[in-house]
Design a protein that fits this description.
Layout (H helix, E strand, L loop, with lengths): L9 H16 L6 H12 L4 E4 L6 H10 L1 E2 L2 E5 L6 H5 E6 L4 E6 L6 E5 L6 H4 L3 H6 L1 E4 L2 E4 L5 E6 L12 H5 L3 E3 L6 H13 L2 H4 L4 E2 H12 L5 H15 L4 E3 L3 H17 L7 H12 L4 E2 L1 H5 L4 H11 L6 H9 L10
Parallel strand pairs: 1-9, 1-10, 2-11, 3-6, 6-9
Antiparallel strand pairs: 4-5, 7-8, 12-13
Helix pairs in contact: 1-2, 1-10, 2-12, 10-12, 11-12, 12-13, 13-15
């Protein structure tokens, strides 16, 4: 448990996050929003899903984020023949001891890179469910705790591509946010050719933070205040997805929790002790869209979950943030402020 003397301040959050951001952006050209969202998910104790076509740097982003932090890292290449025991581990009979010995799988690391997660069967994908939600693994009736901090950074190709399986709804719901890399701008692609044409920037990337630093930053993010009005705004936004006529599956209560936690992390990265409705709005598409299932009629009309979330953001009333700005102007912490 982190003591008060060891606890990081919000200035530590911004300073350390800036070091990690610069390190990752030295490898990933022209994608500052994607890098910032990755850091937000890390500090919010979430898991990140990176979805896009092959070759745009999904795995490179995951590796750069992992290498910028001095912690244990394991990479899992998901393939159709990958078994659940390859991920969680297996009990092997030891002839000398005449007893079973547990051999940990690839999930036993602080940052786990799941490459092309939707190329494995749904049965293998489900091996991640317990570890991502409860940060533990149960094998043969025995439960093993996972190291802390623990984050899964998974990449996947669009489901219409050959050799892919759709992620189960329960699996998608455990990812705090989904981000798409997109193609780089011509200028960024030119810089990429200059940087990657001579050396591999990933090979030269050195850790700029430690796992212990991340734990302290996570504790600092937990202290960010979220006013009742901002919480109500998040609840109203998520509840609206459950009654939308173009959605056959809305967002879960876990989505609400993830949205508020991500807003707190975004506020901390901005150097604020309180979250604003702007934080919720900025993260709503990344946190909610991948959990939603449009109806068949909406799909025929080429309606996407992202478009529906954006429309809800326009429709749901936004609370007045003036009171929170006054707290900042007065230099006082909101009364009764505490973590969520």
């Amino acid at each position: 448990m982190t003591t008060y003397d060891e606890r990081a301040s919000l200035s530590d959050v911004t300073t350390t996050a800036e070091r990690v951001r610069r390190a990752v952006e030295g490898v990933i050209e022209g994608k500052p929003e994607v890098v910032r969202l990755s850091l937000t998910v890390l500090l919010a104790e979430g898991h990140l899903l990176i979805e896009d076509v092959p070759g745009v740097g999904k795995t490179m982003l995951a590796k750069a984020l992992a290498r910028s932090i001095d912690c244990s890292v394991r990479r899992i290449q998901f393939t159709p023949d990958l078994l659940p025991s390859d991920i969680t581990g297996v009990s092997v009979f030891d002839q000398q001891r005449r007893d079973f010995e547990f051999k940990p799988g690839a999930i036993f690391a602080q940052i786990v890179i799941g490459d092309e997660i939707n190329r494995a069967s749904p049965k293998t994908q489900s091996a991640l469910l317990e570890s991502m939600e409860e940060r533990q693994v149960t094998v043969d009736g025995h439960t093993y705790e996972l190291p802390s901090p623990f984050m899964v950074v998974a990449t996947q190709n669009p489901v219409e591509m050959e050799g892919t399986y759709p992620l189960p709804e329960a699996q998608r719901d455990r990812f705090m946010a989904r981000v798409s890399m997109g193609y780089p701008s011509p200028e960024a692609e030119m810089r990429m050719l200059d940087a990657h044409g001579v050396v591999a920037p990933l090979d030269d990337l050195q850790p700029v933070a430690h796992a212990h630093d991340v734990l302290k930053l996570v504790d600092a993010v937990r202290t960010v205040h979220v006013a009742d009005s901002v919480r109500r705004y998040a609840v109203d936004l998520v509840a609206a997805t459950r009654h939308h006529p173009e959605l056959r599956l809305g967002a879960s209560p876990r989505a609400t929790l993830h949205l508020v936690r991500a807003a707190k992390a975004a506020a901390a990265l901005a150097g604020r002790e309180y979250a604003l409705p702007d934080d919720v709005q900025a993260l709503a598409v990344a946190v909610l869209a991948h959990r939603l299932l449009p109806t068949a009629q909406a799909q025929l009309g080429r309606r996407t979950a992202e478009q529906i979330v954006l429309e809800l953001l326009q429709r749901i009333p936004v609370p007045d943030p003036a009171a929170q700005h006054r707290w900042a102007a007065d230099g006082r912490r909101p009364p009764g402020a505490r973590g969520l």
